[in-house]
Design goal:
It is built from 10 helices and 14 strands. Helix 1 (46-58) crosses helix 9 (292-303) and helix 3 runs parallel beside helix 5. The longest helix has 14 residues, at 138-151. The chain has 329 residues and is an alpha/beta fold. It binds S-adenosylmethionine and iron/sulfur cluster. Residues 22, 24-26, 29-30, 68-70, 98, 120, 324-325 line the site of iron/sulfur cluster.
């Protein structure tokens, strides 16, 4: 069985945000105020997350990415990852983390099963990184986290960079150099209007075109063909060396027509788009006696309501109330 929306898009990817808590306060994501978290009772339990994941896997979800907030902060995350690996029809399990806790956790994380890891790292300059994450000494820990993930045999390890003009666009070539030197997959992400500070504006977005134009004269790039139509990143290798670059360009090159995603928030809401203005409460169902069949019917209905696109580039665009840290990127 396959979930399909009314525009004919097959839905086979699920993002699960396992917590809204985070130990960083990145300028493009979370407010500097840490006090607006959901009460613990509002967060789904591990069993509730697993039940939803199992029902969705039966409906054709093949890939799960675990995110947050910061997913490694929540107690029980390692057991949860191991349980996800036991869902037989899941083909691809991944996690996005800020990497701060990877030095201590990478080995145990690797022991849970094959896992693709993405670490967010928005500057190669420690002082600037501390300003972006609004967290002192964050750079050293995250770099040690990348090393720990590689040493633990986690593969591939990707590094995500959200480019924000005025903060880190001067480091584009440095990041390309990092990809080459460490044989990493480095992915630039265009800044999206999901920040708690509501500072986003179009001028702050460093576009895919600008990124390629900056790197090409220094390290000539060769485009890598897409592996699947729903792949979000434009991918490049270097004409003369190891490493890979990706660019995720939702603002300047929207990929909504190929979107295959559904999102589950930490407090049990299904979101059919990052930019949804409406969400669908699965927590109420799982806590009030819904059967697996009820849940399957609910997901089928919800998928039909998936928006055609994100509307960032429309004049009447409205930023959702829920910001990135509460959605799960
Ligand atoms: N805490 C983890 C981390 O930072 O990797 C996981 C959650 S974070 C919300 C997931 C991803 O969303 C990160 O790669 C982060 O850089 C990205 N992100 C956050 N806010 C964003 C924004 N306004 N625009 C684009 N990407 C954003
Ligand atoms: Fe936390 Fe990740 Fe958001 Fe940074 S991007 S504030 S690390 S959730």
């Amino acid at each position: 069985m396959m979930l399909q929306d009314k525009f004919g898009r097959d839905i086979h990817d699920l993002r699960i945000s396992v917590t809204d808590r985070c130990n960083f306060s990145c300028v493009y994501c979370k407010s500097a105020d840490p006090k607006n978290y959901f009460p613990h009772r509002d967060l789904l339990t591990w069993d509730e997350f697993l039940r939803v994941a199992r029902v969705l896997a039966d409906l054709g979800i093949r890939k799960v990415r675990v995110t947050g907030g910061e997913p490694l902060l929540r107690d029980g995350i390692l057991d949860f990852m191991a349980c996800l690996h036991r869902i037989p029809t899941l083909e691809d399990i991944a996690i996005t983390t800020n990497g701060y806790l990877l030095p201590e956790m990478a080995k145990d994380l690797a022991a849970t099963g094959p896992l693709r890891v993405t670490v967010s790292l928005d500057s190669t300059d420690p002082a600037k990184f501390a300003r972006i994450t609004r967290t002192p000494r964050s750079f050293e820990k995250v770099m040690a986290g990348v090393d720990a993930a590689l040493a633990a045999g986690l593969k591939p390890v990707k590094v995500n960079i959200v480019l924000v003009r005025g903060f880190n666009e001067d480091e584009i070539v440095d990041f390309a150099r990092l990809a080459r030197r460490r044989d990493l997959v480095v992915r630039f992400i265009e800044f999206m209007p999901l920040d708690a500070d509501h500072a986003w504006n179009r001028d702050l977005v460093v576009t895919a075109k600008e990124i390629v134009k900056t790197i090409n004269p220094v390290f000539p790039l060769v485009e890598i063909p897409r592996r699947s139509p729903s792949e979000t990143a434009l991918r490049y290798k270097f004409a003369d060396g190891q490493g890979e670059l990706g660019i995720i360009a939702p603002v300047s090159i929207p990929f909504c027509g190929q979107c295959s995603r559904l999102r589950l928030t930490a407090d049990g809401k299904i979101r059919t788009c990052l930019f949804s203005l409406r969400e669908h409460d699965v927590r109420h169902l799982v806590r009030n006696g819904a059967t697996d069949l009820d849940l399957a019917q609910f997901f089928t209905r919800v998928v039909h309501l998936k928006e055609p696109g994100h509307r960032i580039n429309e004049t009447d665009f409205v930023q959702p109330k829920r910001t990135m840290v509460y959605i799960g990127g």
